[in-house]
Automatic annotation (TrEMBL):
Name of the featured protein: Anoctamin transmembrane domain-containing protein
UniProt keyword Transmembrane present: yes
Annotated transmembrane regions: 193-216, 236-256, 326-344, 350-370, 397-418, 510-533
UniProt-listed Pfam families: Anoctamin
Organism listed in the record: Rhododendron simsii (Sims's rhododendron)
Compartmental location: Membrane
Anoctamin transmembrane domain mapped to chain residues: 193-570
GO MF, one example: chloride channel activity
Keyword Aminoacyl-tRNA synthetase: no
Bilayer topology term: Multi-pass membrane protein
Length: 611
């Protein structure tokens, strides 16, 4: 369409196929040649790259090709009059563009790509009733009429992977303005992040940036309370600190909901702000990744279900979720709780610091293994549930796995705080969890994927050198960056990539940190300062991780942070915070009052022993 400005076309999808062993002359109807020709017929820009072990097909789509695919999908977009209407390529000027000036967001482009490379290719075969035989080296593949070419090659193991590619121009811009921009501590180019990674990742970084900015106030308050001698005003300032952080938490979540709504309006996303399965278009979920053949069948066949059948399935789903939740809760109580209490008790009674360190090392290795097993079991249980969508399944996984990590993170601290009331040990444990654990987690989550990538790269080069023993000596290098991206690990969760991406671990770390600083702030007021410093570093390390260490993540169109918001602001959670903070504030105020009245440190120690 001539009225629509042409956008810069970049390669955004990579298809991995085996590298040819035989010469080109030995193939008369090769799989790769047919696949490339079909991609070009549907309007895609194709570039073939030979790697050390595999061959890569890079795909790009002009805006016209994407527009026609969006029209076939009847993708709903915002118009200039404020209404959401199905997209039509002939009326493209009537639709509002994205904040970066492009016609389609990354999530919309990704679904258009999938529709093109799966659905459009399959329709090109319908013109012929005969079966076409495709050859590759000594193998033959039968391409039947009406069958999706790419899906057929995936099922037969010829196409190894289809994954999003990094756009080098935009990636380098984000590295300069985001990952390496250390002067702006909490400011981030959220619109650019949304345009490059999609809604869910941009929402996470918007939440992390806002949380880090808001936490600066209690951080300054806590440091002042800890290191400044306020004299007789100390007894009044500590309860004021407790009340202020409670009000701070309530205000923060209310302002976050407003900011989230503003972001959705700016990104032209029509979806509920409350936690839900994610917004939909044409009655189908954007979060579900399925082939367009199944997509069109599901869309075209609108079967009306009987009311009784619907109610029966709904109740069966609820019973399955209740059964799985009960199983997880009983497992936590019967298995994990005794283990955590045993560790906390041994840590309290052991006198040697060296033995405490050894016990902590053994505990950390054991608990990581137990949590990984619990996460795998949770994923298996969720597969048996009758969830309405992938996002509902992901939310169910969040609740189950968070229970495991909640027990691991807090039961030892509650043990020291409630049973022994040893504030020195409690502060030592808090410092260990806030500083040592979070620093180690940041190092592990960035170093382990990089080591995996380095090992894959080394193995590929080593195999190449073994095959070419007679070649001249020299350093074997990758021909293109696309092979490096293929060897990088995927951005997936530690419990499995079936239901959640890597944001699961990032949100889990943030939720555990928030609970720790809220429940034990009065015992250790500088905890907010440690959390603020960690979050400032977390913004840059997570940005570097997404831009350098991992493959470009598959976009997900969740409109909010989902179940994590419920975990952050659960009424029972807030009630427990208030009770815990009030108990600790009263205990500390009583001891400080005794110290002020007596003026003698020995008397304070004696009173502590009597208690």
């Amino acid at each position: 369409m001539g009225n629509v400005e042409e956008e810069q076309t970049a390669f955004e999808i990579g298809v991995v196929v085996p590298r040819r062993v035989l010469e080109k002359g030995d193939e008369c109807c090769g799989c790769v040649e047919v696949l490339v020709d079909e991609f070009r017929k549907v309007g895609l820009v194709v570039d073939r790259v030979l790697g050390i072990q595999e061959e890569f097909i890079k795909l790009a789509a002009p805006v016209e090709t994407l527009g026609r695919a969006a029209a076939e999908l009847q993708l709903t977009k915002r118009t200039h009059i404020g209404m959401d209407l199905p997209f039509e390529w002939d009326q493209a000027e009537a639709f509002v563009r994205q904040p970066d000036g492009s016609l389609f967001s990354w999530c919309e482009r990704f679904h258009c790509y999938r529709h093109i490379i799966y659905g459009v290719v399959s329709r090109s075969v319908n013109k012929s009733d005969s079966t076409l035989t495709l050859k590759f080296d000594c193998k033959e593949f039968q391409w039947e009429s009406g069958e999706s070419l790419l899906q057929m090659l995936e099922l037969r193991g010829f196409v190894k992977q289809v994954f999003p590619l990094h756009d080098e121009t935009k990636r380098k811009q984000l590295l300069r303005s985001w990952a390496f921009n250390c002067w702006d501590f909490t400011r981030q180019p959220i619109d650019e992040i949304y345009a490059y990674f999609g809604t869910k990742i941009a929402t996470y970084f918007a939440f992390l940036g806002m949380f880090t900015r808001w936490i600066l106030f209690p951080a300054v308050f806590g440091v002042t309370l800890q290191f400044v001698d306020l004299g007789s005003m100390q007894l009044l300032v500590l309860p004021a600190f407790f009340i202020s952080i409670t009000i701070w938490a309530v205000l923060f979540f209310q302002f976050w909901k407003r900011k989230n709504s503003a972001l959705l309006a700016r990104w032209q996303i029509s979806g509920p702000v409350a936690g839900g399965p994610g917004y939909k278009f044409s009655g189908l979920e954007w979060s579900s990744i399925q082939s367009p053949v199944e997509f069109m069948k599901k869309w075209g066949s609108e079967k009306t279900k009987d009311k009784e059948v619907f109610q029966r399935e709904e109740w069966v789903g609820r019973l399955l979720r209740f059964r799985n939740d009960a199983f997880i809760i009983l497992s936590i109580i019967c298995l994990q709780l005794p283990f955590e209490l045993a560790y906390a008790h041994l840590y309290e009674v052991i006198g040697s610091d060296l033995m405490k360190f050894g016990l902590t090392v053994v505990y950390l290795f054991a608990i990581q293994y137990f949590n990984r097993i619990g996460g795998k079991i949770s994923v298996s249980l969720i597969k048996c549930e009758n969830n309405e969508s992938r996002e509902y399944g992901a939310d169910s996984l969040i609740y189950k796995v968070f229970g495991l990590y909640f027990m691991q993170s807090y039961i030892g601290i509650f043990y020291h705080a409630l049973l022994h009331r040893n504030f020195l040990t409690l502060r030592r444990v808090l410092i260990q969890r806030l500083i040592v654990s979070e620093v180690l987690e940041n190092l592990m989550e960035n170093s382990i994927p990089f080591l995996k990538y380095s090992y894959k790269k080394y193995s590929a080069i080593r195999k190449k050198r073994k095959r070419e023993k007679g070649s001249p000596a020299g350093k074997t290098q990758f021909i293109s960056r696309v092979e490096k991206e293929y060897l990088k690990p995927s951005y997936s969760a530690s419990v499995g990539e079936e239901l959640e991406d890597g944001l699961f671990d990032d949100f889990l770390e943030l939720a555990l940190q928030f609970g720790m600083i809220m429940m034990f702030a009065c015992a250790f007021p500088p905890a907010f300062a440690f959390a603020a410093l960690n979050n400032i570093a977390e913004i840059r390390t997570d940005a570097l991780k997404l831009l350098v260490v991992f493959k470009r993540p598959t976009p997900r169109a969740a409109a909010t942070i989902g179940a994590w918001l419920n975990i952050f602001q659960e009424p029972a959670w807030v009630r427990a915070n208030r009770l815990k903070n009030a108990t600790q504030a009263q205990d500390m105020c009583s001891k400080q009052l005794l110290r002020t009245i007596s003026g003698n440190e020995k008397l304070f120690v004696r009173v502590g022993k009597i208690e």
